[in-house]
Amino acid sequence: MRIAIVGAGSSGMFAAYKLMQNNNFSIDLYDKGSDIYKRTRKEVMSGFGGAGAYSDGKLTLTTEFGGCLTEFVPEYKLEKLIEEADSIWKNISGVETLESTSNYEKIKDLEYMCTRNTLRLYAAKIRHLGTDNCIKAIKKLYEILNSQSNVNIYCNKQVSDIIIDNGSAKGVVTEDKEINYYDKIILAVGRSGNSWMHEIAQKYNISSSINPVDIGVRVEIPRAVSDHFTNNLYEFKIKHFSTEFEDEVRTFCVNPGGYVAMEENENGLLTVNGHCYKNKKSSNTNFALLVSTKFTEPFREPVKYGQYIAYLANMLSGQSVIVQRFGDLERGRRSTTSRIAKNFVQPTLKNAMPGDLSFVLPYRYLTDLKETIYRLDKIMPGIADPNTLLYGVEVKFYSLRIDVNENLKSKSIENLYCIGDGAGITRGISQASTSGIIAAEDIKNQYGKEYTSNE
Ligand SMILES: Cc1cc2nc3c(=O)[nH]c(=O)nc-3n(C[C@H](O)[C@H](O)[C@H](O)COP(=O)(O)OP(=O)(O)OC[C@H]3O[C@@H](n4cnc5c(N)ncnc54)[C@H](O)[C@@H]3O)c2cc1C
């Protein structure tokens, strides 16, 4: 059986890893970016290893966030699959330990403190590979896959189209007009493949629905301000519903002792992110604060909206991202190089341009974000300090969500699986890897059935 996997990020790599164990399968794994040895940090989103390659490698081991796989797979089953994905990461990376979440009494206290301030805390087990170990693990995964006689890895090969015949996926067309035919196709194109996924869905009437877009800022504070949270659960996931708009505002991707990073998206747009090394720490902690918006009819292009906001930030900062002191934002003035130089919290992202986020973020977002910062200040005093740094903008493009069944197979096209962030069903390494396992298991099961019935 011939199988194509488009995209070699967490979801695509894990699908290949599971499928390679069956010698009846011949697997072609395509990625539009470079292989893991030739990739540079400029290619943050693309290349073997996907967006996870230069990430913090924080595996959030929960069914509750990092994706919506619970909508397809029963909770008890999903827990086991997440464990399986985690154990593969553990073996490959050699990172045996989980971040501390064992102090239940302390976590209960923190939960109570959040509840009293109309915040909700979600605690989860975390395996933190760290940016350094993450890249090593992906190199190892590359070597394992590359050494299999039934796996071909094609990097720097963009898939530009798929072949659909009679409601069934039959093949892929590459950018250089090569046509290859397959029995099963797995689309695992990640966030950098969102727009392409959109085009393909429209072209072939692949049923889908709209996901929210998350827009906000990255907050950077002295490490000591949030140590009582991060020492006990490493990553705090906190949600708040804003008073004026009742929007969901949440913390995301917490990096204790971490670094703020700039990421280049497709179209060259620059947005903010954060990461943290296992063995090298800064004196700051950073995390994203994001407002979720789900647009209603007639607007169906949340990605474009997010891109527009990011474009404004890039335009005003001279093709960079903006950094602003919270005190300056509150006083209605821009931050300047000299104000940042005097600031108690020194930016870990050195080439962000001091500026004014109020020219970029719509009133609704600014109000939601400020309100949440003041709420967070009640449980982590010091967050609403004038020296706190805000970087903008951080945008999470989830694009449209492909309608898939419990095996992550398209509901409208036969033999087509849509997995990972590109299908709009996951948002992190753990669930993305798990989605690869789910699709691979279904292909294995189907092959078993087809093979027996053909005999
Ligand atoms: C800087 C950064 C830090 C992050 N930190 C964390 C973290 O600590 N923990 C966490 O859980 N998550 C983190 N994430 C998110 C995480 O990386 C993603 O959720 C995860 O990588 C999704 O996996 P995926 O396989 O769905 O997609 P991706 O990893 O995005 O992989 C998709 C791949 O498909 C390829 N592709 C796209 N279109 C095509 C095409 N047409 N033809 C061929 N190839 C194509 C791309 O080149 C890419 O390599 C981070 C992301 C970034 C950018």
Task: Provide tags for this entry.
455 residues; alpha+beta; FAD/NAD(P)-binding domain; 2 domains; eight-stranded mixed beta sheet; five-stranded parallel beta sheet; globular; binds flavin-adenine dinucleotide
Characterise the protein shown here.
- Keywords: FAD, Flavoprotein.
- Its cofactor is FAD.
- It holds the Pfam family FAD-depend_C.
- InterPro entries: FAD-binding_protein (IPR028348), FAD-depend_C (IPR049516), FAD/NAD-bd_sf (IPR036188), MnmG_N (IPR040131).
- The two termini are 15 Å apart.
- A hairpin with a 4-residue loop joins strand 8 and strand 9.
- It contains 11 helices and 22 strands.
- With 455 residues, it is α+β, with helices and mostly antiparallel strands.
- The strands form 6 sheets. Strands 4-13-14-17-12-20-18-19 form an 8-stranded mixed β-sheet. A 5-stranded parallel β-sheet has the order 6-2-1-10-22, covered by helices on one side.
- The protein has 2 domains: 2-102 and 127-209 and 401-454, FAD/NAD(P)-binding domain (3-Layer(bba) Sandwich), CATH 3.50.50; 212-397, no CATH class.
- The structure holds flavin-adenine dinucleotide.
